[in-house]
Sequence to fold (474 residues):
Amino acid sequence: MLSLCSHWRKTFTFCCVWNIINQFSKSVVACNSQRKPTSQPSSNIVFQTRSQKLRTIGVEEVLLFKTMIGLRHYSAQRPLPRRIASRLMRPPAGIPRASGWKLYMSHITGTVKPRMTELQNEIMAAVDVLGSKNQSVVKDEINQWHFHNDQAPIKTPTLLIHGYAASSMAFHRNFSGLSRQIQDLYAIDLPANGLSPSQELDIKYPEPLALKVNIKADKFQIPYTIEYLPHKCLVQNLEDYYLDALEQWRHDNGLGAINIVAHSFGGYLSFKYAIKYPQAVKKLCLISPLGVERNVFSVNNHWRSNTEYQLNFEDPASKLYLPQRPAIPNTIFESQTKLLRNLGPLGAKLCWNYIASAYSRTPSLSYKKYVFEMFYGKDGLSQISKDVFTGLFTNRLLAKDPLLDCLVHLKADDLLLLYGDHDWMNRRAGFELTREAEAMGIDANYSEVSSSGHNLFLDNPEEFNQRVLQFIAS
Fold:
């Protein structure tokens, strides 16, 4: 009887999740069909590398061109729900199929850290470098890989920082190429991520009154007065969990100013780190960073209560900005990987199938298994990492303290925004950040890596390495 109840509970959960995915997908399609081209005049921005100016074109022209390509590509494919279902239900050819029951039974109890350690070692055994490669857990806090090459021409130490729900292993296809040119290359697992243990999260401030934004069509209101200082303090408190750990790591390694190359959520954190510790960062490369765009949820806006405001769906530099993509359902945003575990054997199989499909361009089977352990394992993603992330971002993946709002405080010598040419991240926000940084006198550049998406360093590692080395070597 208990077994039958468990079966129906898992079946009901799966149906609910599938309904959420289906509704979310329909909303995406509806938003794309309703999007209107901007009527604003084209604004020029310079595509640059560190060695030369390539060409000057309009932001809107570029985005319209890419949108046309994207729509043509989209129209030739199956509907979005069917594509998601295909990824979930069937891994690509050449990837070993997995038994959901075996995966589920092996992950009912216990920690996945020993298995992640084993897979990390398998991944790194296949990485060839000219110099040395050493793994350690610095002060029992930060899992790090250090690559040293005496013959490399770039002397400034360079740190690679991963994004959310990832680890240093995300850069395993880049270690060999980058370490040939960088004398001291580091890659770390952020605290409470990968194989770095969780440190205590000390919240010094009470949770403030939630910022509620009532959105109706193209307008919005704030129904009650918000004290913004408590929100700002809480955001800073959550950011400091990572920022102070990064600074302690730098001191523990005896490093001076470093170059930072950071992806997605790691890019967001690195930008804030460069602001808080300006003496610590020489060059900053943000790889498809999260949280760039200004938005209606920013703690810096100071909206008046019960006042109607006009939304801006086009310009990520406007504080009235709200992207037309739908919000992630709270059930998914707050539960995240717990949903997969609640689905039992079915969740384990769906998780493996999706990872195998999403990382189909990454040759390493050990890396796919490593990502599976992170996503499905009971302690693969720590609760602290989830709490910090959901505290810093809304369920629309908009930062509560956006990078564009903080740009005035950035003191880095050089800045590079690097995206994949098929990136789902808001590239126009990267354009705007580059433009505003240049206006401030920062040597800022924007570039894209071909044939790649959000994980551009995995999709096209050779071109990615070339762009990064060109930036930090100049």
In short: Confidence is low (pLDDT under 50) at residues 1-13, 24-77.
